[in-house]
């Protein structure tokens, strides 16, 4: 296992990048702790796989350095980095049996036969293929082959890190849940440093100790699932995490009050003069629909019953607002205003969260 340090790291696919916009991966400086499980979360094209391939050595960065522990591995080839990597689509040896596929990384490093047999049996049980160890990989389904790839990535105990690039794409939904649970269990047991790339917030939030949210080539926030939900550091984090995502509205801030189209919204903190584009963000869980005269006037467009609660979709002068209402919460035609919990409102300037003082 190893601590991973990214120092002034950036990458462009252009030979002579002239501006920040030319970089697929904007400059970043981060330290990822030894033995922790991280998820790189973001939409397609945000730089997740680029960053993973730089860490693994498949791609050389345009600038900056990568350290495993105290060792600079920026110029080191993949083979010298002592990592395991599982790709989005299965990579298996079709002519080998499932057993030999799983054993290959250990045999290649001269491990003792008894240890290989024990470890292969353990991993085969984890991926649910203990009854297929004697089968050749050729002819197996795509999800079975991907389970072999996952198992081969997990079979070594001495790696610096295990890197997963959207490894559950071809796995059926029930098996996805089971494998995520087992990966988390193995992480707790063996303490490997794990980095897991995904665009699926459920995968990220259930797998990782820390989620690294990426947007437009930047890391916009690193935090626990609770931190990302309670205090999104960027409006994209609020939008991308949560279902539905955070409500974001343009506002003017004066001290501990926000003003939106003439309506006054109390805040739990006070703010000085703010420049740039100012917005407030509040999650649907902390928005209430009311018939009182307080709050913002809205037009309710539809109500979606999703079982445990209802999602009320409303319009505020062309801006969508989502409200989560419990099954027992009344919703009637005369409820045409919304109020926000003051302590759950974030204030953002040019999309970045700002911290206020005591109100």
Automatic annotation (TrEMBL):
It is a peripheral membrane protein. Residues 4-241 form the ABC transporter domain. It comes from the Bacteria. Keywords: ATP-binding, Cell membrane, Membrane, Nucleotide-binding, Transport. One of its GO terms (cellular component) is ATP-binding cassette (ABC) transporter complex, substrate-binding subunit-containing. GO terms for molecular function: ABC-type ferric iron transporter activity; ATP binding; ATP hydrolysis activity. The keyword Membrane applies. It is found in: Cell inner membrane. Its main location: membrane. Pfam families: ABC_tran (PF00005), OB_MalK (PF17912). InterPro entries: AAA+_ATPase, ABC_transporter-like_ATP-bd, ABC_transpr_FbpC, ABC_transpr_MalK/UgpC-like, Mo/tungstate-bd_C_term_dom, NA-bd_OB-fold, OB_MalK-like, P-loop_NTPase. Belongs to the ABC transporter superfamily. This is ABC transporter ATP-binding protein. It comes from Oceaniradius stylonematis. The lineage of its organism: Bacteria, Pseudomonadati, Pseudomonadota, Alphaproteobacteria, Hyphomicrobiales.
